Amino acid sequence: MLVSRRPHVRLSAIATAVLALEAAGCGTASSCPDPRPRTSDFVGAVKGPDLENAREDGETDADRCELACRVVAEEELDDIMKCEAVGPEADPEHPWAEGVDEITVTCTATYTPEQFCTGRRPQGHREAEIVVQSRADWFAVHAHLERAAVTAFRELAEWLDRQGAAASLVARCRDAAADEVRHADALDALARRDGADVPLPRADPPVDDLFAVACHNAVEGCVSEAFAAVVAAHQAGHARSLELRALFSRLAADELRHGQLAWDLHAWLWDRLTPAQRAAVAELQARALAGLPQSSRRAAAATPRELGWPGPDHAARMAELFADRLRAAAGLAA
Ligand SMILES: [Fe+2]
Ligand SMILES: [Fe+2]
């Protein structure tokens, strides 16, 4: 069993320690657990230095085609299953010949899309297909996730009410839903100002079962949303514009309360689980914490720097420290 005692976590002290990483000049070193790889076809022209690099760095024509495919895909590809390069009209059969200055590459490959694991998705949430290539896209993704979090907290409040939970716990969920409405409206306005549309969240109906709620909260609330509070606090201090710093500062304070609510709810649920269910929830949470550095690195790489996210290495270090502290506080094994 991964955990031997009732988890008792004070999130604000952990958040402070993680945010102090930078000030201390520390070393060099979901949540979205298990992001699903996708398979796509890519096609495009490769020329100039990109073609030159593929020609010189590949040992075989197959290697060269794969390097060119990575250029065309503009994604971190996991596996390239099929690749074809075609030279210019005059000599399509010899794309890698010296002097050829443009080729067309067609390939099929798998890749793992970046996911922003910072926030509380409702049970049954269906991930929106938004590729982040600009600040407007980033606002759109986060407005979408904030709107999804409204549903998550409303469902949680209703469910807790039906379970006869303390009125104060239900009220905290309702207050959190109201916070998420404000977050969604603010990010929605920024996305639209930058010209992006915000897709409405879609979700399957939630499972009305205490164990399912405990599993969901252990990851979405205790890991994703709690880490969102830390990242938002970093953004509050590092976003380029004063407008964004002020916004992220408000978000950080709210998300810290939501993260603490998740851990308080976790303790409430814990008391109502069987030993076997506790072990399963602890294992799920430990897996989410283990995956947090990698998912944070990906999310950081996909975030425009002006928004104040830590860089990919720093985000991974923050997530590692955050996970270590939470494991220690909750009595979870690494
Ligand atoms: Fe939020
Ligand atoms: Fe939240």
UniProtKB/TrEMBL annotation:
It comes from the Bacteria. This is Rubrerythrin. It comes from Nannocystis exedens.
